[in-house]
Write a structure and sequence with these properties.
heterodimer, A: 7-stranded mixed beta sheet, 6-stranded antiparallel beta sheet, 26 helices, 28% helix, globular, B: mainly alpha, disordered C terminus
Chain lengths: 818, 190
Amino acid sequence: MPRTDRIAEPWGTRTPYGPGEQWPVRVDTYLQEGTTPADVDRWVQTASIMHSNGDAMDIAVRDEQIVGVRGRTDDRVNRGRLGPKDLFGWQANASSDRLTRPLIRINGELVETDWDTAMERIVTRTKELLDEQGPSAIGFYTTGQLFLEEYYTLGVIAHGGLGTNHVDGNTRLCTATAAAALKESFGCDGQPGSYTDIDHADVIALYGHNMAETQTVLWARILDRLAGPNPPQVICVDPRPTPVAKLATVHLAPKPGTNVALMNGILHEIVANGWVDSDYIERHVVGYDELTKRVGEYPLERVADICDVPVVQLREAARIIGGAQRLLSTVLQGFYQSNQATAAAVQVNNVNIIRGMLGKPGCGVLQMNGQPTAQNTRECGADGDMAGFRNWSNDSHVAELATLWNIDPMRIPHYAPPTHAMQMIRFAEEGSLQMLWVSGTNPAVSLPELARIRSILSQERLFLVVQDIFLTETAQLADVVLPAATWGEKTGTFTNVDRTVHLSEKAVEPPGQARPDLEIFLDYAHRMGLRDKDNQPLVKWHDAESAFEAWKDCSRGRPCDYTGMSYATLRGGSGIQWPCTEEQPEGTERIYVDGKFWSAPDYCESYGKDLLTGAPVEPVEYRAMNPSGKAILKAAAYQPPHEVPSSEYPFSLITGRTLYHFHTRTKTARAPQLQRAAPEVWVECSADDAAAAALFEGDLVEVSTPRGSVQGRLRISGIRDGVLFLPFHYGYWDTDGGHQPAGAGRAANELTITDWDAASKQPLFKTAAAALRKVAAGDGTSQAPTNTASAPVHAGAEATRGGAAAEVTEEITAGGAS
Amino acid sequence: MKIGLVLRELHRSENDLAHELLQASEHNKVDQEMYHLARDLAGWSQQHIPLIAEAARRYGEDLDAEPESELKIAERVREKTSDLIGHHGEASWLMLRDLRTIYTKASGVSTDWEMLAQAAPRASSTPSCSRLPNSATRIPCARCVGPTASSRSRPPRCWSADGSTATAVRQIPCAQTPRNLPKQGKLHRP
C-alpha cells in the first residue's frame, strides 16, 4: 500500500475528478510505529479537533491507549482524508506533562489539591462576588474547541443561572467576523455554502483565505478539481505567496488593511458591466441602490492606488468573478483580522448576492471558521450570541428562552449587548470584572499586546480560573487550575463550517483525575445550587447525550435546528448538516435555496450593526428596511487603518498561522513530526526589503512596534514588499520564561495593537506598523517551512520533510463515482 | 427659515462635538473602543465643517472652513493621565461623564441637522446645499439632497453623524452596562 511523507506532502496524493462528479475516496491511516491494523482492538468514531474543517476519523485503540487514526470513508466532508495535524496531533494526548490533578494557588505557588477543594474555592469566590457586586463581576472566556454540549451548559449557567453577560469565546479572535458578516447580509448566522460546492464551481475565489494551510483537506478537494477535467478558475487575495496564490488564475496582493477598497472595486466592475442578476435582486434583495452608489466611488484606478495592485489584475479578477456561472467565495483571517473586517467580509457576500449565486450547486459563500467547534460556540450562546441564534434585541426571543429554561426573562441579561472578549479584559483591567474563568484557551499568548494582557491576568485582585489540559502560559497565572479531559477522552458533538455535525466518542480514559469539561460545568452548577422558577435544578441534564437532547429542544424551530438528529443517527456513516428536523432527518445540504432567507424581522438573529461604528440597527429601522426577509446589501466606504507605517515603523506587520501548528502549540508542539516541521519562530520579509536592509536568510532579526519586540530568524520569502509576517504560535511554556519572555520576545502578540473591528469586535492582528533590524548574522539558513506560504525565494534551504516517522498510508479507491 | 442661522449653529455645534469627542478620546485612551471610535467620529464631524462653510457662504455667512484643532501638548498630557489611571475603577465613572456630554452634544447636532432638513424643500435645488454630505456618508443632510439619497429599500432613518454618534455612543459598552461598574464603596478595592 502506498505510503506518503505527509509532512513533505501535506495534501497527499491526487485523486482528480471533474465538475459534478463525486470526490473520490482516499483513506489516510497513520498508526504509531510497530502497530498494524491487525493490532488495533477497536476503532472509535470522532472528527478532527485541530482545525475547522470537521474531517471525520476513527481513533485506533490498543490496550486502552490511542495508537493512531484513520479517515472515515463514508463522510461527506473528507471522504477518508486527514491532514497532518489530524494524523500526528493525537500524540499530544499522552504527553507526560498533562495536567492530572487540580491546582490551587497558596502563598503565591500553584500546588496540587483535590477536586472538592478546587471547586469549593471557585464556588465560594463566585458567591462572594455575586453578593458584593452582582453577576457583572464574573466573566467566562471559553474556546472554539470544546463540544456543543459543554458550550450549551456553560451558556445556560452564565446567562440563565448567574445572569452575567460577560461570556465570550476565543472565537472572537477567529470567527467573530464570519458570524457578524452573515448576520449583516442574511440577518442570521449559518453558512450559505456547502463543501460540495467545490465539486460544482467553475470559479472559486478565496479572500484572505490560505486554505492550503488552514483546511488542508478542503484544499486537497480543490487540488483534485484542478487536476481533473474542466478545472475551476481560482482567484486569490492575499499579501503572501500562499500555495493558493501559486495556483491561482489571478493573485491579488493588496496592501494590508485595504480589503474594503479592493472589494468595492470588484463590485464596481461587476455592477458597471451589468454582470448582475437583476431579477434575483428585484425579488430577493434590499439595499442595491445604496450599494451601487457607494461602489460607484471606487473605479479601478482609485482602487489600484489605495491597494497598490495593478489595474489590469483587478480588472481580470473582476472579469472572472463577474463571468462565473457557479461562483464559490470563501473568506478567512486575511479579511477577518484586518482593518474593516466585517465591512470587507460583507462585500464578499454582496458579490454572491448581486450575482444571484446562492443556494444552488457550486454557488455559495463560506465565511470560514478557524476552529473545530467555533460554530457551536455561536449556536449555543457561549460567545455572547444567544442560544439557538435567537435575537438579543427581540424580547419575544428572550421570553422563549426563559420559558425553555423555566426562569424569569429578567434573569437573562439582555439590557446590553453581550460583552466581547476584549471588553471583558478591559473590565478586568479597571477592576469591575473580578473573576475570569478561562476554559480551553490561552489568552496570555493569543490576545493582542501581551505585556498589557500579562499585567491584567496577573493582578492579585483578579480571581483567575483556568480549565485546560496543560499548564499553559495562562494557567501559570491562575488561582485555580482544573485539569480537563480532551478529544478522545470524552463524548460530545461538534459542527464544522458547512453545518456538518459529528459525534466524537470517548476512546480512552483521561489521565489521572482529569475530567471532561461538561462534568466540570455540571459540578459547578450543582455546587452553586442554580435553580429554576420551580426550585428545580436549572441544568436538568447529567451527561453528554442528555445535554444534546436538551440542546435539541433549544434549537427547535430555529435555523440551526438539530431536532431530527440523535446520537444514534450520528453514530456510523456520515456527519449530518443542520437544519435537520424530524421531517428532514438526512439534514440540509444547501440553505437559502430560491432566495428564502432567515432574515424576517420576527425571526432573524440580528438586526445588524453599522459597519463603521458598530452601532446597533434599531428594531423599527430594520423592520422598515427589510419587512419581508430578504438578503441585505450593506455598503461601506474605505477607511484607512488606525495605525499605518511611518518613518519610525516603516513596515506593515501581519501575523498568522502555519500549516503544522495550531494556536499556541499546546498540542502540536507535543507531536514530534509537527514540531520538527516548524520548530521555532521566524520572520518573513521580501527579497527587496532584505536587500535594502542588508539582511540575509537566517539572520537573527528583531521586529518591533510601539508595544514590544520579537526576535527570530529571517526567512526571505515572496511576501509583498513592505510587509512583515510573523507566525503567532510561539509562546513561552517551553522556554525558561515560563509564561513570559525571559529575554527577547517570541510571541507575535508582543507586537500587535489593541484595536478591533467595530462591528464584529474581532481584534486586528493584521494591522500594525513595525520596524525591522538585524541583531546578529546567521548561518544562512532558517527553519521555517519550505512548502507553505513561507517558502524561501532563494535555493539552498533544506526542504521540509518528515521522513519515515511521517509516512502515512493512503488507500485510493478507483473511480470517480460510487 | 433662516438657513444661514441654522448653518452657523450647525457649524458651531459640529466643531464643539468634534472637540468633545477628541477630548473624550484622550481622556479614555486606555479604553480602546472609546479611544478609536471617538476619534473616528470626530474626524467625520470635522469633515462636515468645510462643507457647511461652503454651503453657508450662499446665505451670507462667513464661516471658517477649517475645523478647530486640538492642542497637541494638552492631548499628550491627557493621554498619559489616562494611562496612569487605567487600572482604577474610577476611570469608568469618568468615561460615563464623557459619554453623557457627548450624547447631549450629539443630540444637539442631530437637532440642527433636522432643522436644516426641514428647510430642505427650498434648499435642495441649490448647488451649494446639494454638495453637503448625503446619508451614505452618514450625514443628516440626506433629506436635503432629496430623492437621490433615499431609495425604496431604505427606512426613514434618523439622519445623523450626530444620530450616528448618539447611536454609536450607545454602542460603547460602559454607556450601556452600569452594572459593570463597582458598587460605591468598592471603588478602592486593591
